[in-house]
């Protein structure tokens, strides 16, 4: 599984989970810290405005108190995504469609080969 943070200018941060690993609120908060640090360096103007806006779905790690506290402390505004919404997230449409086109016709023997190609 891959965690991807992106905006209109492109990918800010991504990371792969090890096989069999699941994302928890604690690991999600660590990813938030890494993403925030990269965003601070790549696009500081986004963080200089009043509350950067974050859109993510309603999975448990995203809604956990530790995650909400982390985002509040970093002054992110959370744009709500309705539960059980039939609308797909922009990531599902925009980013993964382009990624699927990139991977089309590619053959990989293992996850490490995929990671190297990204």
UniProtKB/TrEMBL annotation:
Domain of life: Eukaryota
Coiled coil, from the record: none
Transmembrane segments: none
Cellular component per GO, a single term: site of double-strand break
Gene Ontology MF annotations: DNA topoisomerase binding; double-stranded DNA binding; histone H3K36 methyltransferase activity; histone H3K4 methyltransferase activity; single-stranded DNA binding; single-stranded DNA endodeoxyribonuclease activity
Gene3D superfamilies linked to this entry: Ribonuclease H-like superfamily/Ribonuclease H
Gene Ontology BP annotations: DNA double-strand break processing; DNA integration; double-strand break repair via nonhomologous end joining; mitotic DNA integrity checkpoint signaling; replication fork processing
Protein name as annotated: Transposase
Organism for this UniProt entry: Odynerus spinipes
């Amino acid at each position: 599984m891959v965690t991807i943070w992106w905006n209109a200018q492109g990918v800010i941060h991504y990371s792969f989970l090890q096989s069999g690993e699941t994302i928890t609120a604690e690991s999600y908060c660590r990813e938030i810290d890494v993403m925030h640090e990269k965003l601070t360096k790549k696009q500081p103007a986004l963080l200089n405005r009043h509350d950067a806006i974050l859109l993510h779905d309603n999975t448990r790690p995203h809604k956990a108190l530790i995650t909400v506290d982390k985002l509040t402390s970093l002054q992110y505004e959370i744009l709500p995504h309705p539960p059980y919404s039939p609308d797909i997230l922009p990531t599902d449409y925009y980013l993964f469609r382009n990624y699927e086109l990139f991977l089309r016709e590619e053959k990989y023997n293992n996850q490490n080969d995929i990671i190297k190609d990204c």
